[in-house]
Amino acid sequence: YAAKARQCGSLIYHAQLDAGSQESLSLLSEMRRAVENDELRLFLQPKIDLQTGRVIGAEALVRWQHPTRGLVPPMQFIPFAEQTGFIRMLSAWVLSGAARFARDALDAGLNLRLSVNLSTRDLMDQDLPAKIEALITPRNVPASALCLEITESAIMDDPERALSTLEHLHAMGFKLSIDDFGTGYSSLAYLKRLPVDELKIDRSFVMAMERDLDDARIVRSTIELAHNLGLTVVAEGLETAKAWALLAQLGCDEGQGYFIGKPMPQEDFIAWAQAWAPPEAGTLTAESVLA
Ligand code: C2E
Ligand code: MG
Ligand code: MG
Ligand code: MG
């Protein structure tokens, strides 16, 4: 996260470089105010079935509609939120928005699975499963309508404790996904032990696969690995028709990316999904870059 945020050249992120500074204290109070004043926005990005083109879900991605800085992307405040522990409040906000949206979608006749990103600190919270259940039960949303995305690094911080939370969540029926797969300090031994349902190939590999044979091979092997472990595999960063065709050819199950749809305000999603028409069969073709 730190490295990624630094690449973004984030103004806000610099505040945490000396924690306890006036700047970071004011950022923390600004974030508290953001929740109180309803400045957070829930964006949704579609996930589709690569074989049929059907919309099957959406990933919830947070933005901050800041009164003076405009729409602030998550990489500019999530790392700070993680450091200060504020992330738990943020995750609760996103989870509650996702549960509410899952209900609205069901009422509109759409059966969508909502994916929510969790951080290490969330996994260290033993009450997390009960908290999520309290969000879905009154709305009559099934646990399987939520998918919780975690990164390899979030698990590796304290694998035993993370495993216990994940097992609990899995037993309750929530879907679990490993996000940004291939970029963290993964351990295949842990991957085997984790009760996960889905693996998301990091967008860096997917975005490069058309021009770089090594990336294409990594994508192919990851799809195979996921399937051998009985996991659904999702490609993120699907930006072109050709990438879709290649991924479908390689047997990848699901896709998410700008070619299908960018993250959009949640208010726009249902209309977008109802208007979505996958490309006509036969229009998606690609000569395999892999022999
Ligand atoms: P992520 O979970 O891997 O989410 C996917 C990111 O890839 C999103 O960036 C999305 O806009 C971007 N993306 C999707 N398709 C494409 C594509 O085709 N091309 C390119 N270039 N990018 C694509 P976003 O929304 O800026 O979020 C960045 C990261 O911030 C997320 O990565 C996630 O790690 C974190 N994040 C976002 N919302 C939350 C949240 O509510 N809680 C937590 N803990 N983390 C969040
Ligand atoms: Mg994610
Ligand atoms: Mg990702
Ligand atoms: Mg990520």
Automatic annotation (TrEMBL):
Q: Which domain of life is it from?
A: Bacteria
Q: Which residues form the EAL domain?
A: 24-277
Instruction: Please give the first and last residues shown and the length of the full protein.
Output: 504 to 794 of 797
Protein name, per record: Bifunctional diguanylate cyclase/phosphodiesterase
Q: Which organism is it from?
A: Pelomonas nitida
